[in-house]
Amino acid sequence: MAVFRNQTSYERFWTGRNYLTQLSTSVRNLTRSFLTCSHKPGSKPLAAEKADTEMIVRLMVAILYSVKNHLRAEWGAAIVPGGSVEANGHPSFRPEYAELLPPGIQGYEADGLGLPLELMFFVEKYIRIGFDKGWFHGPQASQMQVQVNGMVDAYSRMETIRMTPLPVAHLIHQKQVLALYCCILPFAMVDDMNWWAVPIVALVTFTLYGIEGIGSQLEDPFGYDKNDIAMDAIAEDSRQEIMVMLAQWKKNGEMFAANESVSFFKS
In the structure, what pLDDT confidence band is assigned to residue 198 with cuts at 50, 70 and 90? Predict the structure, then answer.
């Protein structure tokens, strides 16, 4: 039973990590497509269009942070647990991704709508506008929609892991059986092992409770423990690389400038 619990907990940990990778991969793919294709072929984007593209790219990064906070039950676009509140009820503490959110955004967590899903509405609307303006052709817009659907799917599956702990009946029975086994084991070994039964029983007990403790640590992989998924580091790494791409795009850097030495830019 202890090994089963350990395997189940590690599966939850590994599955959560894979879905977080799926989410960050979709963010990278959509960011690359938005920065490269968000204008009509043969023309430069207008200032307002560039502002919209920059806003949606920043919002893509905010989705990673909002998913991380949502899985940790840190609700709200304007306040997180531990932040102070002013006398008028307004938050005096802003979350780490506040500057990435669209101006004036209003959260609906109190009504049951998670912020990650709310932000994905902006992404889908941007894709529709880009298709209507001729930035994206039909198959391309369809592939972008697939990426958005994949983000929602990954977010929902991580939410399922977070909100569906192992059954309490199983955990209670496992602890009872483990305690009973460790109590009976010395009497079963003492006739054959004499005093050697003491260190052997201690070793077996340490091993079994260690396995049980590992399962307990891995059961919820989205917290702050050292054994949990490094969600803060993953979100910060994604933010850094996307901000570099955005900075290059804003100044038409080498990454996005036409290079005449490359043949396909001449067409």
Answer: confident
